[in-house]
């Protein structure tokens, strides 16, 4: 299907990797591995149907609480993903930007993410990967930057211009897989008027047809932005 006209930015909370693995009697890391493949398939599909901005929630500031083995596996997958996928992203015209805090992430991983950002800089489509990301921390960071610049009164446009995704438009649609009805500290500022779509499908099982279902539902929504 083609991207519905009013949608330019879709975001995904990629939940359910652990349950996908557990259902198969496998360690949780296997779910993340399958999830990384799904991530690639879904990002490519969104690009193919003309969606300009895609954001994925890969690792939250709270995810450090997970066992070290699982955390290491996620960062390992990310590094392998960068190695394998970089030429394809360039070929597809996708510019990648990591959003979140760099502090706490190992030097080797930072080197890789810097390289991916540098090699894809300026390309037409945008992929934001939220890594060591927290929505509240993002807003605090924006406010602190404005204070450091000497601002004494802050308005919404000021904050919008200091968040990680600036100048991209806010997500029109946020899709959460895995069936939980919460936002989990994701894009708190940007999500003010986003439509939410929650599916029980676990992230590794997510297919382009499931994206189509979310887009069909989005087309039926009546976005009023507080109006009537
Ligand atoms: C949430 O599922 C998923 C994560 C915390 C990690 C997401 C990581 C990937 C999709 C793979 C690596 C990413 C990239 C960008 C290559 P969960 O583990 O909370 O699932 P559960 O709710 O079933 O336990």
Keywords:
7 helices, 228 residues, Undecaprenyl pyrophosphate synthetase, binds farnesyl diphosphate, 6 strands, alpha/beta, six-stranded parallel beta sheet
The largest sheet is: 6 strands, parallel
Instruction: Give the total of domains.
Output: 1
Here the CATH topology equals Undecaprenyl pyrophosphate synthetase
Instruction: Please identify the structural class as seen in this structure.
Output: alpha/beta
Count of individual beta strands: 6
Largest sheet, spatial ordering of strands: 3-4-2-1-5-6
Mean pLDDT: 96
Task: Please identify the top-level CATH class.
Answer: Alpha Beta
Gap from first CA to last CA: 30 Å
Notes on the structure:
It is built from seven helices and six strands, in the order βααβαβαβααββα. The chain has a single domain, classed as 3-Layer(aba) Sandwich (Undecaprenyl pyrophosphate synthetase). The chain is an alpha/beta fold and 228 residues long. The chain is globular, with a radius of gyration of 17 Å. Helices cover 43% and strands 16% of the residues. It has helices spanning 17-23, 28-48, 68-92, 107-120, 135-148, 156-160, 208-220, and strands at 9-13, 53-60, 94-99, 125-133, 173-176, 195-198. The mean pLDDT is 96. Farnesyl diphosphate is lined by residues 14-19, 32, 35-36, 39, 58, 63, 74, 77-78, 81, 129, 178.
């Amino acid at each position: 299907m083609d991207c519905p006209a009013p949608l330019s930015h879709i975001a995904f909370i990629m939940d359910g990797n652990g349950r996908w693995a557990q259902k198969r009697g496998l360690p949780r890391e296997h779910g993340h591995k399958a999830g990384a493949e799904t991530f690639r398939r879904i990002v490519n599909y969104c690009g193919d149907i003309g969606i300009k901005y895609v954001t994925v929630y890969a690792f939250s500031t709270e995810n450090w609480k997970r066992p070290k083995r699982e955390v290491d596996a996620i960062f390992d997958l990310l590094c392998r993903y960068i190695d394998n996928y970089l030429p394809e992203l360039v070929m597809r015209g996708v510019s990648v930007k990591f959003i979140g805090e760099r502090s706490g992430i190992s030097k080797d991983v930072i080197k890789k993410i810097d390289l991916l950002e540098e090699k894809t800089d300026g390309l037409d489509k945008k992929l934001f990967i939220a890594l060591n990301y927290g929505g509240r921390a993002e807003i605090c960071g924006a406010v602190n930057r404005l204070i450091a610049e000497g601002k004494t009164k802050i308005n919404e446009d000021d904050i919008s211009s200091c968040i990680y995704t600036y100048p991209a438009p806010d997500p029109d649609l946020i899709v959460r897989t895995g069936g939980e009805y919460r936002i989990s500290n994701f894009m708190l500022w940007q999500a003010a008027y986003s439509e939410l779509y929650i599916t029980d499908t676990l992230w590794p099982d997510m297919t382009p047809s499931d994206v189509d279902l979310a887009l069909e539902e989005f087309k039926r929504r009546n976005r009023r932005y507080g109006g009537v």
